Amino acid sequence: MLYLCGEKVNILFLYSMKISKAPLLSFIFLMPLSLMAEVNIIPQPTRVVEKEGSFILKPNATIAYNDKSLQPAAAYLREKLCPATGYNLPISKGKKADIVLSLNTQCQAGAEGYNLTATPNGILIEAASYRGIVHGIASLRQLLPYQIEKATLQPYVIWTVPAVEIEDTPNFEWRGMMLDPVRHFFTVEETKRFLDVMALYKFSKFHWHLVDSQGWRLEIKQYPLLTDDSGFRNPADEHWDRRCNEIAKNDNNPRMIVPMTADRTRMHNGILEYGGFYTQDEVKDIIEFALVRGIDIVPEFDVPGHSYAATKCYPWLSCNKDGRDPICVGKDTSLNFCRNVYKEIFELFPYEYVEIGGDEVNRSAWKKCPDCQQRIKDQGVKDEAELQSWFTCTMEKYFNENGKKLIGWDEILEGGVSKSATVNWWRGDHTNVVQRSTTGGNEVILCPFTFCYFDYAQDNNTLKNLYTGDIVPTDLSAEQLKLIKGMQGNIWCERIPTEAQMQYMVFPRALALAEKAWTKNSQQNWDKFYPRLLKHVDRLKTMGIDQRPLEE
Ligand code: TNX
Questions:
Q1: Cα torsion through 372, 377, 379, 381, rounded to 10
Q2: Which atom of ligand 1 is nearest to the CA of 494?
Q3: All domains of the chain, ordered by start, with CATH?
Q4: pTM confidence score
Q5: For 174-197, what is each residue's pLDDT tens digit?
Q6: Helices 280-292 + 332-348 axis angle, to 10
Q7: Which atom of ligand 1 lies nearest, measured to the CA of 455?
Q8: Is residue 453 within 6 Å of ligand 1 at its C-beta?
Q9: Segment (H or E) for 124
Q10: 3-class SS at 542?
């Protein structure tokens, strides 16, 4: 690359513009190779060897895959390359093409890793799994000029890929992001856009917080009131809607206005209500989209607290049948409701893990409820905390009978939990949670609010603190470390009413988390990360991401 008038200019482009070559050529040969090869991949790969020369993607290029299972990956790659280049690259089965995707069970890169080799003659992405191939595609996207992410034709860009050899394997398998479309709703398109960026930075899990007190976002066929009633609300009645609009006004910030757009409102009894929900068909569509990109979806139906959206429309779920949260766990009818909802969730989401929630339960209603007290007696448990843990274990049995594994917020540890449950460590001030869970044999996903709450305000230190902080507690033994599944960022949306505000809160810090979760600790280096991150600002912008400016 050359820098002319502050712009990066590809030499071949200058050739094609017939600009005098003589002075240029001498300059080019004096240029250090590193200037020509731009390898700025986030998360940092395990091993990168930059070579001489580059591959140029031309209009007649081709894509091949060696195994039928890779066909969706090849189509995804073509789809990603098409809008900006204008090339509709032909795909074929085989091993001869400019870009070859090769499934090879002997590949040493591990379950999710990949090897990528780019030479002037072509590109080979090799992996032992579909997921590895997709991660190779993410790296290839990042090796291309950032304009590759444009949605429109970029006729003046030369699509150069620096010659390089990459070997890459993730450190943690769980590299998650949690989104809360309950407090504020995100449409199918917005959700897909988010998944698409997640894939570019090799996130593997999308924790989808579909249910909470402020709304119910998932069609459940057996209980239609959940979405008919709790799918929408009068924004004038909802504290967080009023609060966001107030902030928007005070700060003159349009990103904070609760969007009363046609795709998230309905007229109901003369009131323009705000909300939305995902039909099961829409969920299937999102699952398909995520699957192609190597992302698992982890749905959450949060019980027994955070459940007003359910108790409101089916008051018999609550202790006094008065429609108050939490769900009464003394009543078999309530337990059956939970099982029936989970059953539809199990059938819809073809994954191993489902989230039960279990956080912040106000157990005081259980204290006064004869059914809950009877349950305590019958089950021989000590108190309401143990009653919750009885509930969690009862549900976990049901999960397991249906071939699913349970995850819950770290409150599920209170009152005891089975070894097979996985814990989301979120209370960063309860530093003993990780110690306790791993000593007890429970796997843990790290998302302490001290680092991983992307709804929390940011200042100029937030990014560095996240990158350099010890998300993995330093007091764990090697045995305990094996129980750390990985980490995730949580995007709670009480104060995030729009996609633009979500992007502003999440980017670019999600890229720091991506590297924390993928790259080995010994290879994480802030001074090397930051310059690489700077190169991603344009890429994110090109993708339409409304990120927080780095120097703000
Ligand atoms: C705590 S984290 C909650 C959420 C809120 C969040 C706001 C967790 C398990 N519960 O319900 O949205 O704080 O940051």
A1: 90
A2: 12
A3: 2-168 (3.30.379.10)
A4: 0.93
A5: 999 999 999 999 999 999 999 999
A6: 50
A7: 14
A8: yes
A9: strand 122-127
A10: helix
